[in-house]
Amino acid sequence: MLATDQTDAAQERGTSVEVLGNELLFSWDPALGLEQVDPDDPITAAHWAGLNDVQVLPEGGRADERVPLSSLVGTTLVSVAISPPL
Question: In this structure, is residue 65 part of a structural domain?
Fold first, then answer.
């Protein structure tokens, strides 16, 4: 069972996105994201959607240089398989 969101404004459930230099790191912490593990209903993947709504620009860039993150990664959704399933 998924954990309750930490804020009303987002559905984070243990997910995070971090900028590390020129890399973007998507991560999920099941200790924060799951209220309980159910072996009969395994978690097999984590998904980050709505990348077209995330605006990015070069460090020190101007506002008119913003582009949707989806244009850089080529998709609006990132999915990562969880192995072994939780």
Answer: yes
Domain around 34? 15-81
The tally of domains found in the chain comes to 1
Q: How many CB atoms lie within 10 A of CB 53?
A: 10
**pLDDT recorded at residue 70:** 94
Q: Which pTM value belongs to this model?
A: 0.68
Q: What is the largest CA-CA distance in the chain?
A: 50
N-terminal to C-terminal alpha carbon distance within the chain: 11
pLDDT category, 21, cuts 50, 70, 90? confident
Q: Name which of 13, 69, 16, 21 is nearest 43 in CA terms.
A: 13
Q: Which pLDDT tens digit goes with each residue over 2-17?
A: 787 777 776 678 888 8
